Amino acid sequence: MTETLTYQYHSPSIITKSHNEAGLFLSNYSEIQKKDNPCFFFGNLRDPYITAQALITLSNVVQSSFNLSPFQLALLKDPIVTSGNEKIRFEGFSHCAGVYARVDILESGLDGEFPEPGTTNVDFNQPMISSLSSIERNEKVVLSVGAKELDLIRDAKITRERKVPLPVKWIKALTSVQTFLADSEYQHGFNKIQSIQLFKTLPPGKPKSDYYLISRAGKASFSPVKSGNAICIGGVHRLRLLEPLLPFIDQLKVFAHPNMQSTSWQLYFGSLRFSLTLSRDPWRGFSGEGAALDSLLEDIPDSWLSATHKFCYANQQFNSTLFAVNEGIHISLVNQLTTRLSAMGLLGFDLDENSFFYRRLPFKTERILNLNPRLKDAEKLLAEGNVRIQQRETDKVEARVKGSGVDHVVVINNGKERCTCTWFSRNQGERGSCKHILAVKKKISEL
Q1: pLDDT for 393-411, tens place per residue?
Q2: Which residues of 406-422 are buried (b: 16+ CB within 10 A; e: fewer)?
Q3: Antiparallel, parallel or unpaired: β 110-113 and 118-121
Q4: CA 208-233-353 angle, 5° bins
Q5: What single string gives the DSSP state of each residue in 291-337?
Q6: Helix (H) / strand (E) containing 51
Q7: Which of 307, 296, 440 lies closest to 368 in space, CA to CA?
Q8: Distance CA 155, CA 149 (A)
Q9: Which of 245, 295, 273, 231 lies closest to 432 in space, CA to CA?
Q10: CA dihedral 204, 262, 61, 275 (to 10 degrees)
Q11: For the chain, which domains are there?
């Protein structure tokens, strides 16, 4: 399996400025093209200054890392752009894939046309950042997602990018982060002043211990001491990525995963939202979390998956509960379908709308196994006959799984899982099931 999806552009994307007017034209490319339409969106940004500031912050996330070497940091990657359902969304991960950021430009922030929905990859090189940085509040900025190559033109200087790789690691990370977001719950809301005051309590440097978002006497702060209904934040220093945007916000909302496997910080600017989602710890990338593995165990007919994909493409969003009710399908089956589409990078999750949105990426079911090596290894264990069920009762299963020179013991008791392998010992199930537990679960489902 290759490590990148290579994007080839065919005509320029342009950013231009003259006097008080600027134009930004972002190129598009897709591995599949349902219609030969070169344009996904063309029109004005209603608040170009705030949009530019948000995109610069997104670029800062994409260029940051919290656990990689300087050599790895040199391998810069670029944001994903999805245009559809009267919105434009820019998404990206830090290099370590432990921080996910998204800029949502809503319908009220756009004045233009959406000829066709689509997803592309854009380049945020330094000339692009410089041009975005110089946009002023009263400028007219035209955004076009649709030209076929990426050029940046300003003062007769042209910067051109013909190929931009989209890392497979990002698609793996998209799977887990959407699963965490779909399970996250609203916890706190702050206005601008409260948000600025809260961020003044961030500790200096890079604390190694967990910090907590706590509230005492109606005042929120970050503290190394847990109390009450505190929200746990590993790698709290990563929140400093949001500080440049705080003076412009109307509101900040905080969402947390029930098991504190992620926290999401959503900033509101009227017609624009900026979301930052942090993994449990700075050394944990979303690409390795395995949050969706259990939902991928049961076999689903390709015809059902294809039909759900077509529904998502047609509507550009997907409310799983509503879909289950309308189609008379059990919600557990719909959740398995959405997990599979997410595992191909096709679905993201919008916290405010409480629904999935669609990314137009290639529909390739083989990615589900290729991007989830533990699941692939579990399938191999089963195919080679290395899983033996020793005991099976109503609430308890014990099995032996043949490994490399050693048999691992798997016990599933009242929903609690244990395995004698190194992966389980190190992670205790916090990063998804090990391949041995996955193999046993699939074996049970087939009996």
Answers
A1: 888 999 999 988 899 999 9
A2: eebebbbeeeebebbbe
A3: unpaired
A4: 150
A5: TTTGGGSS---HHHHHHHHHHHHHHSEE-HHHHHHHHT--HHHHHHH
A6: helix 48-62
A7: 296
A8: 19
A9: 295
A10: -110
A11: 4-166 (3.10.150.10), 172-287 (3.10.150), 294-369 (1.10.10.10), 372-446 (no CATH)
| 135 vs 200: CA distance, rounded Å | 28
What pLDDT sits at residue 163? 40
pTM for the whole structure: 0.81
- Alpha carbon 105 to chain centroid, angstroms: 17
Strands (E), 168-230: 185-191, 211-216, 219-223
Per run of 10 residues, the mean pLDDT along the chain (length 447 residues) is 45 43 42 55 82 89 69 55 89 89 94 85 74 79 62 41 61 86 95 97 93 91 91 95 96 95 96 95 79 78 84 85 81 86 90 92 78 88 94 91 90 91 86 90 85
Place of tokens 């134009």: 23
pLDDT in tens, 411-432: 999 888 999 999 899 888 778 8
* Predicted pLDDT at 150: 41
CA distances from 386 to 84, 252, 403, 424, 429 (A): 47, 51, 8, 18, 22
List, in order, residues 6 or more apart from 9 with CB less than 8 Å away.
Answer: 27, 28, 29, 147, 148, 149, 150, 161, 162, 163, 164
Per-residue confidence (pLDDT) for residue 149, from 0 to 100: 43
The pair of three-digit structure tokens given for residue 175, joined into one six-digit string? 């799977």
Q: Helix and strand tally (H, E) in the chain?
A: 12, 27
Residue 110: CB partners within 8 Å, gap ≥ 6? 41, 43, 44, 45, 46, 86, 87, 88, 143, 271
Can you read off the two tokens belonging to residue 319? 């409310």
CA R_g for the chain: 23
